Amino acid sequence: MRIVVDDVGSYPPRMGHGFVARLEERQEEAVSLVVELFEEKRSTGLDVPCYPQLREMVDTFLLPLREQDNWEEPYVLREELASMPELEILDEHYGESGETVEVKVPVTGPVELAVAETGPSPHRDVLMAVAETVKRFGESALELENVEVRSLALDEPSLGTNPAIAIEREDLVDALHLASEVGVETQVHLHSPLYYVEALEAGIDVIGVETASDPSRADAVDREVLESHGGYLRAGVSRTDSDSMAAEHRDATGFDAWGEEDAFLRVIRETESPERVAERTERLHGEFGHRLRYVGPDCGLGGFPSREAARLLLRNTVEGVEMFRRGHC
Residue 14 contacts by C-beta under 8 Å, 6 or more apart in sequence? Predict the structure, then answer.
């Protein structure tokens, strides 16, 4: 099985709340930026790019839920409102040229949203209602004609990293199952693999783990457990924790990556080279074999200092995986 290169979603520049209105109103500036950045991602050679997430990941999906007039019932967003303007813009753009593009669609997961709204111990009814809303966002993406959804990815960064979260195991599994029940391959993006078994039990197909910045996270995932559930791994093979990358490089070389414009490019060239990406991919393939289905950057690139830096990391990631592929053909 060919390993697929995708990304996680966010991309510089990060936009403020005013950008949401410009998106929804289809203002030319916002429309052009979404298309331009998506094409920029495609140009790096990604097999399956995410649409460019320029808004804050929780607010994108939670703000509509804070308006009770938008509810079908408490915390269940009306179906006609559960849409993503970025995807609709891409659908309209490629429809004009008669092209179909394959995308990965990241949606903030039900645990992340429910905890952000009601605190670390959300009631089951709230959690399940939010999960239904997440599902509706995913289903809306499948209705587009010129955007073909390769996978739906639930983003759950707090799950396993926030010790205050207290959710019954059954409720967690049920919420993840409901949110991911959309009829397309599903991923979950975790910053910690602590609850990966629950995600597999929920029927999620691919477990995403950040292994470039911390290779030991891969050790917490058991290949036999993946196989027993018919699940796969999406592993990070390039780092995205830009602050730590710059600090470690400064300690090693004395070079200040934040000292001048585009200086961070040097950090990427020296620490996230294609050769290093190929080495990481090789190691992970040795551990997981055909259960390694996707690789790419650990997380989103919204915190990177420039688009040029984001492009370079994506290109190096793609080139590194190509080096790995050539050694395994």
Answer: 54, 56, 302
Q: How far is CA 168 from CA 78, 158, 172, 174, in A?
A: 27, 15, 6, 10
Q: What are the tens digits of pLDDT across the range 99-146?
A: 999 999 999 999 999 999 999 999 999 999 999 999 999 999 999 999
Domain locations in the chain as residue ranges: 56-208
Instruction: Please name the residues in contact with 322: beta carbons below 8 A apart, sequence gap of 6 or more.
Output: 45, 274
Contacts of 241 by beta carbon, 8 Å cutoff, 6+ apart: 213, 298, 299
Q: Rounded to 5 degrees, what are φ and ψ at 222?
A: -95, 125
CB atoms within 10 A of CB 143: 12
Whole-angstrom distance between the N-terminal and C-terminal Cα of the chain? 11
CA–CA separation, 32 and 26 (whole Å): 9
Q: How far, CA to CA in Å, does 170 sit from each of 70, 114, 136, 173, 174?
A: 28, 16, 22, 5, 6
Which residue has 């055909």 as its token pair?
A: 290
User: Which residues pair with residue 187 across a beta bridge?
Assistant: 153, 206
Residues contacting 70, CB < 8 A, separation 6+: 64, 77, 78, 81
Q: Where do we find the tokens 């830009």?
A: 242
Cα–Cα dist 172/149, whole Å: 25
DSSP 237-265: EE---HHHHHHHHHHHH---TTSSTTTHH
Q: What would the pLDDT profile of 43-75 be if each residue is shown by its tens digit?
A: 999 999 999 999 999 999 999 999 999 999 999
